[in-house]
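Appendix B. Chain record.
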Amino acid sequence: MADTHFRIERVYGPALRHLVEDLARLRLTVFSEYPYLYAGNQNYESSYLKTFCTAQDAIIVTARDQRGELVGCSTASSLNGHHTDFSQPLVRAGYDLTQMNYFGESVLLEHSRGNGIGHSFFDQREQHARNKGYKLACFCAIERPADHPKKPASYRDHTVFWHKRGYRKLNDISTSFAWPETRDGPEISHPMAYWLRKL
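Structure tokens predicted for this chain:
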């Protein structure tokens, strides 16, 4: 249960587009941190999110503070016709995409963490997926070595949290995505693991 100082809401349909620029800024802020170390730009993020808004069963779960400021967002949608790079390894492994809801990013500003918002993001997306008839929820997460030189001493791994939520890592399939880690730097391929839960 999220702290009552924060308001959690689900956003669907045409209203999604009103969140594109704010979510793009949140993604750039949060994903610049370890473990993603993503050095993206607003134009690319906005374009990516506008495409997301057209996906079947797309939803953004928002978290706002007492002032109404957006401090976090979490997304989910169908895999049909979207996220092809992500979905193809699942198809090759025999998964039925029509039964699978894709959980995209969960981004939350540092000062708002530790208040149960992460659990609320999963609660809201899982309920949305069940309401739409999906049987599985799946997301992708970066794999970093334990001794990565840029890993902060205060970094908290999410593996225990995901296990408590009922997700299991799929050890038989993986994928990779490329993004720059420095401004105007080269795109670097990053290994990504799949996590799955039956709903």
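Further analysis of this model is presented in Appendix C.
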